[in-house]
Amino acid sequence: MFKDIHYNEYTREFMEQLPKGAFLTVKDGDSINTMTIGWGNIGVIWNKPIITVAVRYSRHTYHLINHSNEFTLSIPLNGQLKKELGYCGTKSGRDVDKFKECGLSAIKGNMVETPVIGECDLFYECKIVYKQTMEPALLDTTIDEKYYSNHDYHVLYYGEIVSAYIKEK
Predict the structure, then answer these.
(1) Domain encompassing residue 77
(2) Ordered mean pLDDT values, 10 residues apiece, the chain (169 residues)
(3) Structural domains counted in the chain
């Protein structure tokens, strides 16, 4: 069903899809939540393959990810799941079960406890190796004014990619 890949084999496809949406999933104990992200990065830091994601303090995922040491990214590559990405980007896991409401299947990860979303095509499993709270005083003022007028800043999570794979066709 899945084929292991080198972490950077589908970097172009990942980065092209990211502004359209990808699913960031976190598990803390029995609680699982997914949210839509549109910002992130993939590269090498500390000689490790790293994905960086940003989660705002106000998000339900923020509370889960701080009690977890991992996350997964599930990326649809074929134009599917637009409605689901929209829903998961506007509804809170505090109030709804996004998997149930969107008909998404949680598939057990290869190397982490956090599941991936089975309806997607490209998957990354990550172990958090660093967390960085944004320092507003160091942020470019035009970015601060445009994206943080309400002062709901992000925490940046650096996840070492421990498994990457695609859905076999």
Answers:
(1) 2-167
(2) 95 96 96 96 97 94 93 96 95 92 95 97 98 96 95 96 94
(3) 1
